[in-house]
Design a protein that fits this description.
With about 220 residues, the protein is α+β, with helices and mostly antiparallel strands. It has 3 helices and 10 strands; from the N terminus they run ββαββββααββββ. The model is unreliable at about 215-224 (pLDDT under 50).
Length: about 220
């Protein structure tokens, strides 16, 4: 099991003394007795990711926020400050394996913000990122994955009509990403981004694939 420390990059960026963008980027820093070199490599990955996110905030979002703030002032419109928030959740951390996802929330002054999820699963002996096929799924089983997801969507739609788009059968295939997964103690969770297969109100749809002979009470779920 790896020990984790939360690191943060944050700032409130102003224009003419008015806050126009607030960003907070939380990311993990690992220590591990599996391999110090591997942990250092993985930590470098997240440090670079955090630097890229901060650069995006400062060089892309901030100028855009300033422009919107000036336009709002000139036209006597209300201006809502931009926000960028990145938080990670560790979902599995046993022996020399750790799995986590990061949700990056952006609010750019509209009716609501948008969240993009990214996930990684690491082998702390080698420092390598692992793939879904390393655990229980074979590339040839992808159609079986779709069948399970379709059956689950039918159940959810019966319970809450309109939870997914009508053409979900095509969308789950067209938007499937082999990297959009993370581990839990008793299985693998496959997820889709907002709007890919369901309306905004449905959040980020998740589908749980349990290992055989393993009981996990979390089940499949949808997060917002």
């Amino acid at each position: 099991m790896q020990s984790t420390e939360k690191k943060t990059k944050t700032d409130v960026m102003k224009h003419n003394n008015v806050p126009v963008l607030t960003y907070t980027i939380n990311y993990p820093y690992f220590t591990s007795n599996c391999s110090t070199a591997a942990a250092n490599s993985i930590n470098q990955f997240y440090e670079i990711q955090s630097q890229q996110s901060e650069k995006y905030c400062r060089e892309v979002l901030y100028p855009q926020a300033v422009e919107d703030a000036m336009y709002a002032k000139d036209n006597e419109f209300p201006f809502h400050s931009y926000e960028f928030l990145s938080n990670y959740v560790i979902t599995y951390n046993e022996d020399c394996f750790t799995s986590l996802y990061t949700d990056q929330y952006s609010y750019l002054g509209g009716a609501h913000g948008n969240t993009v999820r990214k996930s990684q699963t690491w082998n702390f002996q080698t420092g390598k990122q692992m793939h879904i096929t390393d655990f229980f799924l074979d590339v040839n089983d992808v159609n079986d994955i779709f069948k399970v997801i379709e059956n689950e969507i039918v159940i959810r739609q019966n319970e809450n009509p309109g939870t997914y788009f009508d053409d979900y059968a095509n969308l789950i295939r067209g938007n499937f990403d082999m990297n959009s997964f993370y581990l839990k103690p008793c299985g693998v969770v496959i997820y889709y981004q907002q709007y890919e297969i369901a309306p905004y109100a449905s959040g980020i749809p998740e589908f749980f694939f349990p290992y055989k002979n393993c009981t996990d009470d979390s089940g499949s779920q949808t997060t917002s």
